[in-house]
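S1.2 Input.
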Amino acid sequence: MQTSPSPPSTSAVSGTWRALPGGIWALGFGSLFMDISSELIHSLLPVFMVTTLGASMITVGVLEGAAEATAAVVKVFSGALSDYLGKRKFLLVSGYALGALAKPIFPLATSIGWVFAARVVDRIGKGIRGAPRDALVADLAPKHVRGAAYGLRQALDSVGALIGPLLAIVLMIGFAGNIRTAMWFAVVPACITVVVLSMFVREPARGGGAARARLTAADAKRLPFRYWLVVLMGAVFTLARFSEAFLILRARDVGLALGYVPIVMVVMNVAYAGGAYPAGAAADRVSKRTLLLLGLMLLILADLVLAFAASTLMVLAGAALWGLHMALTQGLLSKLVADTTPAELLGTGFGVFNLVSGGALLLASVIAGSLWSAFGASATFLAGAGFSAVAAIGLLAATGRRKQPSTG
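S1.3 Output.
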């Protein structure tokens, strides 16, 4: 990670997005509409599970972690398959279509088993599309603006994640707190996503044209040491940050009315959407270590605020800090994966990265749910702050040994 002589100028950052290919914008808007759908569901789902279906905090933690881990496992195979086929769009659209098909299951669910099934199907769809989509961003965007490309896609994704909870609040008010009716509206934007991506994403021609037999475990040996450092870093970051479902449950814990609980995700995603593109563009020009450390400091502060929150306002402040942390770190980690992975193994590289991160998320969410059940909400967020502090110390120690870290 090298620091440039000076930080990026406002004109440089604002001008970069104009040069990004149209396919990046199509991927971004596809993410936007799917996140409207997904976050409408997810902003209501934790409360739906706890209040309507009688789930415990441990159950919520296990379900959320297992669902994300499922997506992570599938990403390995879909990413490698996209490398093998030399095609990514088909897998991309198929994954989004499966996610759209899962949406009606949530309002129809009458037990935790049905919710779990819906989450798994939805996350399998995410797994199928995730690695090919991230690899396609790298295929489409020139290397010198990859940070901006990942930042833009993440920013549009976060705008959708902002609109989804807002729509949930409006629907909950309009339908007098009927969660099932509100969740039915998630089907429409999910279908729009499939149409947008089918019509407007054009993947570039890949060298050689023919499929190559590279779906073997030996491919991992071709991934450089710098890449594995990024994978390790991503796992540590994810272990320090459990499922966002616990943010929603924290708001309910301090007394926020059921119909307004999604406002937590609105606030988080305002911060996330507002910071994602500037942070991504900055990652093309300034020290990666500085951005990562700043992101960890924000996560520690968010966890501390949430641990000691005694009012809705404090929970919202913690959610905003959480969103800023995501803005600074998520696009940057994607850029680091792309920059350290051989071009012919981009799908595989993203798949392995997401597999390891998904395992870390499963562990983190189970720990969070167990701590909440045993010791209360404060213990969950204090543990998160502790993991984040350890991650920050580890990052400082690892990068301090070298003037030019491997992940830069």
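S1.4 Remarks. The chain is about 75% helix and 0% strand.
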